[in-house]
Design brief:
Layout (H helix, E strand, L loop, with lengths): L5 E4 H20 L3 H18 L5 H8 L9 E4 L1 H23 L3 H21 L3 H11 L21
Antiparallel strand pairs: 1-2
Helix pairs in contact: 1-2, 1-3, 1-5, 2-4, 4-5, 4-6
């Protein structure tokens, strides 16, 4: 069953990705486990509790009112983006546990994986987590009900 396509503000998503990248780079440079853990919590909280981009409040309370960023609302499905954030949050959770329990190579490698995938989405417009969501939809996995937009490669940002 396919849900109807709704509108998604991609400025919110890009703000979320930029903040994740910035904070995780700062965490790595300063070897700040606590900052990586904070990003993990925000990503998981956004996914599980608010069902929105974790750092969306910064966009809505700072960037949008100050007119630093304008809304970029396009026809899209929000579910793949939420899944991608949740999947990234789980990867970060594993990474922060690795950092906490003394496996920094594994921990920072997972942090860098999240940085890379967020940057790929931010700068190229390709969301690997969204592509996985649409693959799961295609094989009929329960709960993955949204189909990609017609004519848009699964994971690519709709135009």
């Amino acid at each position: 069953m396919n849900q109807s396509i709704r509108k998604v503000d991609h400025s919110v998503l890009r703000t979320n990705q930029a903040i994740i990248i910035g904070l995780l780079l700062a965490a790595f440079i300063s070897d700040a486990f606590w900052l990586a853990a904070f990003v993990t919590l925000v990503m998981l909280y956004g996914t599980l509790i608010t069902r929105k981009a974790g750092f969306a409040p910064i966009y809505f309370r700072v960037f949008k009112p100050a007119r630093i960023l304008k809304p970029d609302v396009i026809e899209d499905n929000p579910e793949p983006h939420l899944f991608a954030q949740g999947f990234g949050g789980v990867v970060m959770l594993i990474g922060t546990f690795a950092l906490y329990f003394g496996a920094p190579i594994i921990g920072w490698a997972l942090v860098w994986l999240v940085i890379f995938l967020a940057a790929l989405n931010l700068f190229v417009g390709f969301c690997a987590g969204c592509m996985v969501y649409y693959w799961l939809n295609r094989i009929g996995a329960p709960g993955f009900t949204a189909n990609p937009l017609p004519g848009v490669f699964p994971g690519m940002r709709p135009h």
